[in-house]
Amino acid sequence: LSQFMVTAILRLANASILPFEFGSFTRTVQSYLDEIEREAAKSGKTLNFTDVRRELSLLETNSTTYEQLMQVGMRKNPINLPAQIALNQTLLTCERMLIRPEGLPNRPWYKHQIYAPGFYTGYGVKTLPGIREAVDAKKWWEAEAQAKIVADRLDALNQHIRKATEQAGEL
Fold first, then answer.
1. Torsion angles phi and psi, residue 110, rounded to 5
2. 4: exposed, middle or buried (Cβ count in 10 Å: 0-12, 13-18, 19+)
3. Is 40 helix (H, G, I), strand (E, B) or coil?
4. What is the pLDDT of residues 101-148, one digit of tens each?
5. Closest Cα partner for 26 from 85, 72, 74, 66?
6. CB count, 10 Å around CB of 3?
7. Are 99 and 111 in contact (CB under 8 A)?
């Protein structure tokens, strides 16, 4: 863990642009949603996660576009300093797009919609906690309602990444 932390700190400290990569995140969230669908299927339920899947597909596209523009922008010498500052500020706030002020069901103090400690697992992490815990409790209507919330947060992240992509084009 300490080696990882030191590597991360050095990478961040030496980066002119924050080294964010969204493609892996997208694929990881897709795998979480797949797991939840398989769990619901064990109970004979098919849930409607169309909105979440659509946002993840857009996120994959937006991530690819961003990463391609970043490769071009990082080859420029010198980098446009005002654009660099604006881009870093946008990247710094990306994670905040995944929180919801109202929080999670039964735990309004946990606001992140992708990762949170489980309701019944203490501090053991739950992925897509609002959806997963509703499926675990067989509250199918709540799982679909939570999926809409996750889709909304992913839409906010998509908008933020599109903004970062525009800023990367100005480097």
1. -95, 115
2. exposed
3. helix
4. 999 998 999 999 999 987 777 778 899 999 999 999 999 999 999 999
5. 66
6. 7
7. yes
DSSP 8-state class, residue 112 = B
- What's the DSSP call for residue 125? E
- At 165, list the tokens: 């992509």
**3-class SS at 170?**
coil
* CA-based nearest residue to 56, from 46, 64, 68: 64
Confidence of residue 1 (pLDDT cuts 50, 70, 90): low
- Residue 27's pLDDT is 96
Distance CA 150, CA 113 (A): 6
Residues 47, 140 contacting (CB under 8 angstroms): yes
**Contact status, residue 130 vs residue 105, Cβ threshold 8 Å:** yes
Residue 78 DSSP one-character state: S
Strand partners, 164: none
Q: Give me the mean pLDDT over the 54-69 stretch.
A: 96
* Gap between the Cα atoms of 137 and 143, Å rounded: 9
CA atoms of 167 and 171, how far apart (whole Å)? 7
Dihedral sign for Cα 95, 133, 25, 19, please.
Answer: positive
